[in-house]
Amino acid sequence: GAGVSQSPSNKVTEKGKDVELRCDPISGHTALYWYRQSLGQGLEFLIYFQGNSAPDKSGLPSDRFSAERTGGSVSTLTIQRTQQEDSAVYLCASSPRGTNTEAFFGQGTRLTVV
Amino acid sequence: GNSVTQMEGPVTLSEEAFLTINCTYTATGYPSLFWYVQYPGEGLQLLLKATKADDKGSNKGFEATYRKETTSFHLEKGSVQVSDSAVYFCALIDASGGSYIPTFGRGTSLIVHP
Description:
The complex is a heterodimer.
Chain A: E1 5-7, E2 10-13, E3 19-24, E4 31-38, E5 42-50, E6 65-69, E7 75-79, E8 88-95, E9 104-105, E10 109-113
Parallel strand pairs in A: 2-10
Antiparallel strand pairs in A: 1-3, 3-7, 4-5, 4-8, 6-7, 8-9, 8-10
Chain B: E1 3-6, E2 11-14, E3 19-21, E4 23-26, E5 32-38, E6 44-50, E7 56-59, E8 62-65, E9 75-77, E10 86-93, E11 103-104, E12 108-113
């Protein structure tokens, strides 16, 4: 596609429910990143996929968070048993080969846990 | 570890005023430096970058110079416009440890009044 696509753009869920957020990276980009953007907190790194290597999960805040990337393309971020503090904008980005070049961001998914 | 520190916002200016947004960094190795911009309702997009000391990145009238001696990458623009109102993020990639995960600052909101 023309850019990084994320869905849904907005998600409201009840506390305790599971949610899945989807990211379609730019075709051919082997690196994929998930970040969380909370008000006043900047961008918090969550997880990084690079090609077929094991993902870097060092930023995941708890075991309720997980992500997978199927076929080296689409990625899904899953949050189990959502809590109110999970409310944030979840951003996905991709880049070619995970080099020191720019990351291309999607518009994000705004998650609200009520 | 790596970190990026930006000046607190919001920065409020009148149209045609001079802009400086300060950014300093800490890195283990020799990072590449970036400025991203996030316009209201949109995802982050690359504004400019520099990959080695004394390089100057520039785009859309914005400039930033990679200062290794002061570990800084301050963003400047000589005459801001209302359309420059956005959130600006300073970021680095330090690949010395084999990771290409961008580290972001907290962002600085810029508000430009007519």
